[in-house]
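Subject: Sanity check before I submit

Could someone independently write out the structure tokens for this chain? I want to compare against mine line by line before I put it in a report. The sequence has 110 residues.
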Amino acid sequence: MSETADNIETKDLGEKIVNVLKTIYDPEIPVDIYELGLIYDVFVNEDNEVKILMTLTSPNCPVAESLPVEIEEKVKSIDEVKGAIVEITFDPPWTQDLMSEEAKLEIGLL
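---
Independent answer below. Compare away.
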């Protein structure tokens, strides 16, 4: 397979992952975790194993235990994904500046 085809497949898979992330909502704010800016990075290796680097709105977030598991399960449900792991970081800490314009509009910050 050519490198261009690999890049296209990786891009398509990346879009599928983002679409799944947009179906997962923070329980305290009625906005999905992607638009909230909780997802810092998504890595996909050549074996289609996914690593998601994310944060939470606060270290005391009530879903700190369950949200990463939900994300892993939903991302693993994508046919092309062979495995998924979520890593939580608080560096840099989440702020409202990380939210998309859409999210800010949704909760009345704009």
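---
OP: Matches mine. For the report I'm noting this point. The two ends are 46 Å apart (CA to CA).
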